[in-house]
Structure formats: structure tokens, C-alpha cells
Amino acid sequence: MPVQTDAYAVKTAGTPLAPFSFERRDPVGDDVAIDIQFCGVCHSDLHTAYDEWGRTTFPCVPGHEIVGKVTAIGPDVTKFAVGDTVGVGCMVDSCGTCPSCDAGEEQYCEGSGFVGTYNSKDAKHGGHTLGGYSTHIVVKQDFVLAIGHDDADLAAVAPLLCAGITTYSPLRHWKVGPGSKVGIVGLGGLGHMGVKIAHAMGAEVYVFSTSPSKREDAKRLGATDLIVSGDDAEMQAHAGSFDFILNTVAAPHDLDRFLNLLKRDGTMTLVGVPAEPHPSPAVGNLIFRRRAIAGSLIGGIAETQEMLDFCKEHGITADIETIPMDAINEAYDRMLRSDVKYRFVIDMASLKAA
């Protein structure tokens, strides 16, 4: 029988998140049913809930940084068993047959496009997907991740399912490691994970921020130092010295200030999506040093599992503030003020109790 699921949803455009109930399907075939313990709060949740990208389907249940326990499995499941600790990230399906899916890069699915954990058309089961601000979810086994961290760390593991993989994937793709000088632009939910992961990979890490007050925290997270991006002298002192820059800022800004810091053949990869375009960079900054601007989108399922295993090995979790479900609207307001270090995580026991 379908399972009654309690959640928080935006029911119509322009309204706050509020209690909502719906039915999840029974696990069939290769489905895994998961009792959600924690769900991270991503800025994409806020964009979607507020319909800032203009493509939200209502009712909308956000949430794609999910950690929980397996409660039931379909008859064809071979990878998981009841009681396993698992995670679900930004995707719950893809076409499975295109070149990107064949390469384990489902986030770039060229067939039907990947099916998001929430706010995506669900051609297989009907309607649209509803995410992790809920007590329960059912996901096909190929999009479920194994969690090896201790139970005491599970709340802080949840943001790895988006913020962790969004920063790990480009760092790995551009071969960051010992001997690399790496810059992280922005010290928020994504940036703080980028610092921790790049440091664990053996790189020399610097944070770029407009806030000098973040210097000590940047060092605590693993950075050698913080460079004030608005200070011309500090920026010029590092001109032409970076191998790789990971730019996490999701607001339009002058990319040339950072391109000037790259070595020959250096790359700056963008992972933030601003509502308005960045000012166009000067082509000469690219041509005369063979520099590159690139982009990166989360990571494939196999790479996400690799990231989780890497983080377990290196003792990496997110810096979080745990909140009850009924504090989500206040949390969104605080996110807009950048008043969180560095990720909110919802304790789903609070929703179950309510």
C-alpha cells in the first residue's frame, strides 16, 4: 500500500512553506524506501520554493540533501538491505542509455535529462517529484548512495549530497592535488566544503572573500589564508600564481579580477548560477595565458559515492546548524541574509513528532 508521507511544501506561488501530506509509492522492482532522518537546506531549495527561476511546479516539496535508513526494498534490489544508512542527492533517475549516462555522468543526461529529486516531471510514476522535506522517500537503487560515516555525524553528512559533490567534482576533474595552488571564491555553503576538500586533496588553498572578518574561519577550515577580493594590493600579490580557482559565488561579478590570478593554462570553474549574467570577461586575459573559464554541475552517482568515501576517510563533514522542520521559513530568511555557518540541516524527527 502507498505510504502516507508528512512534509513541508509551498502549495502555491508566493506562500511560505507549510505542513503537507501526500502518498509515496510502495517500493517495487529496484526501489529503495528510505525513512529520512536529516535533510540539508540548499540555496536551490529557496530559489525553487520562491519560483525565482520561473519553473516551479506546485505543490513543491524541496530537499535534495537526504540521509536516512532503508525501511523496505523492492524484489530486484541487490545493493541495499533494510537498516542500511543511505543518502539521496540531487537526482533520482536519468535515461540510462545516452553517452553521458554510459560514462557515469548522469547529471549531464542527453536523453530525457536527469530527473531531479524534486520539481521534476516524473514520466515513470506520474506527476512531479517531491523532495526531502518529508518523512519518507522511495528511490531506485541506482540513485541511492551508501553512507559510511558514524550515526552521530549523519546530520553533518547531509550537505555532502549537494554542496560536497558540487565542489568535489570539479576539484577532482581538474586534478587538484599536492603541488596545486587553489583559490575558492566565496565562503558559504559551497565554499566551505571546497576549502575542506581541496585541503584534504593536498592542495595549498586560499579563500577569496569580500569579508576580512572571515580570515580566521577560512584558516580553521584548511585555507592557508584569506585574500580580500576588493583589495587591489592583496589580489596583485598573487597575480599569475593559481593553478585552479573554484568560483562558488551565485551573483554577477567581475571575473577578470580572478582570471588575472591564474597561471598559464590555469582554469576557473564556475558552480554558482547567478540570476543575471556576469559581465563579459576580457578575451585577452584568456588568450595570452591560455586560461580557461569552465562550468561544472554536481557529479555523477559513482563520483558522488567516491566523494562520500573520500570524506569518510578524511573525517570531512559540513559545518551545520540543525533546525526543526517548522523553522524552515525563518531559515530561508536567514539564508537571504547570509546568516548561517555554513548549512542548515532539518532534523526530520521534529516533523515526525509534530
Describe the structure.
The chain is an alpha/beta fold and 354 residues long. Helix content is 24%, strand content 26%. It is built from twelve helices and 17 strands. It has helices at 43-49, 99-102, 154-157, 163-173, 189-200, 215-221, 232-236, 256-259, 283-287, 301-313, 328-336, 349-353; strands at 3-9, 18-24, 31-41, 66-73, 85-88, 91-93, 115-116, 136-140, 145-146, 181-185, 204-209, 225-228, 242-247, 262-270, 292-295, 320-324, 343-347. Helix 5 (189-200) links the parallel strand 10 (181-185) and strand 11 (204-209). Helix 4 (163-173) packs across helix 5 and helix 4 packs across helix 10. The longest helix is centred in the C-terminal third of the chain and has 13 residues, at 301-313. The chain is globular and about 65 Å long. The model has no long low-confidence stretch (mean pLDDT 96).
Rg measurement, Å: 20 Å
- What fraction of the residues are assigned to beta strands by DSSP? 25-35%
**What's the overall average pLDDT, rounded?**
96
Largest sheet: 7 strands, mixed
Distance, first to last CA? 23 Å
Binned, the helix content reads 10-25%
CATH top level class name of the largest domain: Alpha Beta
Write the CATH architecture name of the largest domain: Alpha-Beta Complex
Number of domains: 2
Helix/strand/pairing category? alpha/beta
